[in-house]
Amino acid sequence: MPLHSQADARFSSGRLLAFIGLVSFFLFVFGPLIFLIPPVVREIAGSGPDTLLLMLPTGRRLSLLLSSLLYAAGVSVCGTVIGVLCASFFFSRDRRWTRILPILILAVLPIPPTIHALAWMAAWADVSGWLTSHGFFFPPLRGWFGAVWVQTMSLLPFSFGICLIALRNLDPALIEAARMMGDDLKTLLKVALPLIFPALISAAVFLFVMTLSDYAVPSLFSVSVYPLEVFSDFSAENSPARAFLLSVPLLVITAAVVLSAQSTMRDVAAETPKGALGRSLRLELGPCTNGLTVLCLVLAVLCFVVPTFALWLDVGSVSDLAAAVGSAKSAIYTTLFCALFSTLIALVPSFWWADGMRGIGRRGRILWVMALVVPAIPGSLFGIGLVYMGNMPVFAPLNDTLVFPILVSVARFSPWAAILLFCFGQRIDPILFDAAAVHETGPVVGFLKVRLPLMLPGILAAGILVGVLAAGELSGTLLVLPPGVDTMIPRIFTYLHYGATPQTAALSLVMSWGFLVLFSVVLWLLSKNKA
């Protein structure tokens, strides 16, 4: 066969594999939402245009939406400000402990907000009781204050990590030149922070959309938010169409926020990092600024200490911990099973989606936007779509299996894997891929001998990320779990409504340390770059 014919055949095969991967990703991620379209159309056709009024929040729903927006904005601002100030502390110091501590703070990132809530409830109650007994006043952790505090603390490692990596990736020559023109505080405020402004926007947007679409933490503090209204309406009416139409305001707002910042976020994700923790520059920021950064550092350290150690105070003893774990064996096995299969299903299509996102043209940006929008969609919508899917006769046998809980996690967290693989791929010289494409005898051989070895650390990290996120999934899993079957986070969430018990603390502690160990492996894998 002529060389040009062989090249055409390899190109066609590669295009076919990429097309299959993209279609698979689209069906897994957006399939549950597509199933909501027919009931919405029928609802509008049967009830008339008045049904569309569900999309317009009025009265109580408008109040809930405004409260949700303020809640999400508050968490976004607080988390970003504390994150950048804490990152500034490490940016201006270079000692051994300042290189280890950020890793510990980042390692608790995948711990679900539900576990953070339980840990903070327990720790706050212990501190409050001790101070009150000694005549001091300590505000209770309840209501909006409790919800904002816990949500901010649970998402703080995210904003801290983005800001720290952005600061450590700054060109030292720019900082040194700026220091010649003024003091170090002005250098930080007028040079360093403006240079990392895209990273600040990215952190703020992610915190906003992740908070706006979540109802777990507010519900634990008896605070009503708009996503909880959608979940409650579906539980009462069992109408997928109503749930979808009620979610439209959330979808419009989150999509608008994400789309307005998507170019900035893509530039941040596509930036080639100089190392996860990079180089520090010793800056003298003054006593006031240093005091503020130290305070934020204390908060960041508490993000690690509280969910990993404070729960020990309520567990009691090692025997109590073992007894709690023994009583929850079935839930643990089910959680591990769902997490494992969610990872296996999500990895391949996510790999091809990430490969498509690296494209320079319009298609790459469209795929990037689609991956970015999914984390902003309320998780309950994926569960509602699968519930409607299970009501169809052809899919009815799947209702009593773990297929739907697995598909919820695949739909929600495949974009996270694609985004991580996209970022990891930016660290690899594209010339290596181009050279392999020229000399490979086929797309499968090229993938196995070149792409897979180069991307293997990123693939393993993405797999662990999907696994730990799937183990902590709540909002969609609650709707699709078969009768008599339970996973860890829904069980903990249910127990918390009856108060924090030693058994709940023990289960949360096991989950917390499991997430901590696995995500530490993710950070280690991402630091491996043999390319």
Q: At the fourth CATH level, what is the homologous superfamily of the largest domain?
A: MetI-like
Total helix count?
24
* Structural class assignment: mainly alpha
- Helix coverage percent of residues? over 70%
How many individual β-strands? 0
CATH architecture grouping of the largest domain: Orthogonal Bundle
The third-level CATH topology of the largest domain is MetI-like fold
The unreliable regions are 1-11
Distance between the termini: 34 Å
Mean pLDDT, to the nearest integer, reads 78
Q: What share of the residues does DSSP label as strand, in percent?
A: under 5%
Indicate the overall shape: globular
CATH class wording of the largest domain = Mainly Alpha
General description of the model:
- The chain is mostly helical.
- It folds into two domains: 8-47 and 320-531, MetI-like (MetI-like fold); 68-315, Orthogonal Bundle (MetI-like fold).
- The chain contains 24 helices and no strands.
- Helix 4 packs across helix 13 and helix 5 packs across helix 6.
- It is globular, with a radius of gyration of 24 Å.
Architecture blueprint of SSEs:
Layout: H1 3-34, H2 37-47, H3 60-91, H4 96-107, H5 113-133, H6 143-168, H7 172-179, H8 184-195, H9 197-212, H10 216-220, H11 226-237, H12 240-270, H13 287-310, H14 312-315, H15 318-327, H16 329-357, H17 362-373, H18 379-390, H19 403-425, H20 430-439, H21 443-471, H22 477-480, H23 488-496, H24 502-527
Helix pairs in contact: 1-16, 1-18, 1-19, 2-12, 3-6, 3-9, 3-13, 4-6, 4-13, 4-24, 5-6, 5-13, 6-9, 6-13, 7-8, 9-12, 11-12, 12-17, 12-18, 15-24, 16-17, 16-19, 16-21, 17-19, 18-19, 19-21, 20-21, 21-24, 23-24
